[in-house]
Design goal:
alpha/beta; 8-stranded mixed sheet; 3-stranded mixed sheet; 6 helices; 32% strand; EC 4.3.2.10; glutaminase activity
Length: 213
């Protein structure tokens, strides 16, 4: 079974992510060790909370360079929620620099009549990369579960894999570029659709292992 390192930096709901990965047929390993990230077949970076503490916690554990090295090596990587946002250059939520792996900024939803911030609950994805492997076996506009006040705004629009609309604002809900994938919603809270997305990620990890073997 594929061993997937789940990065522990005190900012994620690790239990439900691990349960989801187990159901998807992987062996999750919660770790903050650079050596374990290097050994794992893939990496999941979950995250709940605020931007500045997240990047501070990652840097205090010396995890920034290992994460960048793993992505550069072609290892499958999945960011979830805050784990998507900290891949970007900066955020309107704080003043710390992000990891800068994806060019662009994290922005706050504009207040407008009739919408709540945070954007919370079930909403439909508009798949902008319909052939992205994360979306295999899904309906064209799947429902997933969101909780966020900020969204990513990539400098290169082609990395967008899905959008979501909240009020009059259509924003990026997922990105995908080669081995790097990240989602703003919570697959581990998105019922069968979320489990399918995690299973699709695990299947990619297995395919890569088979090719390497």
């Amino acid at each position: 079974m594929a061993v997937i390192a789940v990065v522990d930096y005190d900012m994620g709901n690790l239990h439900s992510v691990c349960k989801g990965l187990e159901k998807a047929g992987a062996t999750p390993k919660v770790t903050d060790s650079a050596k374990e990230l290097e050994k794992a077949d893939a990496i999941v970076l979950p995250g709940v909370g605020a931007f500045d503490p997240a990047v501070q916690h990652l840097r205090s554990r010396n995890l920034e360079a290992p994460i960048k090295a793993a992505i550069a090596s072609g290892k499958p990587f999945l960011g979830i929620c805050l784990g998507l946002q900290i891949l970007f250059d900066s955020s309107e939520e704080g003043c710390e620099p992000g990891l800068g792996i994806i060019k662009g900024k994290v922005r706050r939803f504009r207040p407008e009549p009739g919408i709540t911030i945070p954007h919370m609950g079930w909403n439909q994805l508009e798949l902008t990369q319909p052939k992205c492997l994360l979306w295999e076996y899904l309906a064209p506009q799947p429902w997933v579960y969101f909780v966020h006040s900020y969204y990513v705004d990539p400098a290169e629009p082609e990395v967008r894999a899905a959008n979501v609309t909240h009020g009059s604002q259509t924003v990026t809900a997922a990105i995908a570029h080669e081995n790097l994938m990240a989602v703003q919603f919570h697959p581990e809270k998105s019922s069968n659709i979320g489990l399918q997305i995690l299973s699709n990620f695990v299947a990619q990890v297995r395919d890569r292992e088979e090719i390497a073997a």
